């Protein structure tokens, strides 16, 4: 099911039928909606005008949809329908990420019975509806941009993205999960914990973005820490000792994650390809800075870690 299907906004939607019926009355009440004669023409009209003009129409719908405005659920459905293209792009991006990197704080799912795409669509749809119904129409004017940005932030916070969780709850963002069964782990078909030799019983907050990674129990056959464990230990120590900031750690984890997904052609440049142009271009939009800023701050962070590493490993505190 798509984001629109999750919201019940297909061609047979009862709420959209109500919007079609109410459209003439809405236009009579608010002339800003008079740009089209019928609601079904609105979605094709929006891309033909600039953002300022389209936001005037969307603002009228947002006011009708808000509980402190018209409190009209049909208007909320109409507004959500207009914003579906942006919401679907967000869902599409999230769906490309590995499930275990996405659903840090999500509820357990049944092994072999779930769809990452469907779960993402559910999260995006629910957050979009919340943002549509709670848009601050008395103060804000950029309707599409604000709702879609807040939807993205809400979904990333819901699935456990370290940066957005830390802005809302720094304690939870830095919590280490050590229960043998934690939210997000797979369960067996009968509802019990489906652990086996291939599914170890502990996990810690530690994958890229501070998402969980399943780790094997320490034992005689696994005495050496993994590369991920060593990296996370070093970054935690560096933050605790003010070598780097939490923002620097987040940037570095983003770089490592993206570098793992692309083929690095020039290992001699940019710390083994970590600061390559392609990696920087992938990370820049995720943290809202330019590619040059990504490379500059990334280089500074790596240099700081390199300078401090002897102190860390020479006499571990």
Description:
The protein is mainly alpha-helical and 317 residues long. It has 2 domains: 3-169, no CATH class; 224-311, no CATH class. It is built from 16 helices and 4 strands. It has helices spanning 3-6, 14-29, 42-45, 51-65, 73-82, 84-95, 99-102, 116-134, 143-159, 162-168, 170-173, 227-240, 246-259, 270-273, 277-287, 291-314, and strands spanning 109-110, 186-187, 202-207, 211-215. The strands form 2 sheets. A two-stranded parallel sheet has the order 1-2. It has a two-stranded antiparallel sheet with strand order 3-4. It is elongated and about 75 Å long. The chain starts with a helix and ends with a helix.
Low-confidence parts: 105-114, 178-223
Q: How many strands in all?
A: 4
The major beta sheet can be summarized as: 2 strands, parallel
The helical percent reads 55-70%
- Helix count? 16
In terms of structural class, how would the helical and strand content be classed? mainly alpha
Task: Tell me, briefly, the overall form.
Answer: elongated
Order of helices and strands: HHHHHHHEHHHHEEEHHHHH
Please write out the topology.
Elements: H1 3-6, H2 14-29, H3 42-45, H4 51-65, H5 73-82, H6 84-95, H7 99-102, E1 109-110, H8 116-134, H9 143-159, H10 162-168, H11 170-173, E2 186-187, E3 202-207, E4 211-215, H12 227-240, H13 246-259, H14 270-273, H15 277-287, H16 291-314
Parallel strand pairs: 1-2
Antiparallel strand pairs: 3-4
Helix pairs in contact: 2-5, 4-5, 5-8, 6-8, 8-9, 9-10, 12-16, 13-15, 13-16, 15-16
List keywords for this structure.
5% strand, two-stranded parallel sheet, 16 helices, mainly alpha, 2 domains, 317 residues, two-stranded antiparallel ribbon, 4 strands
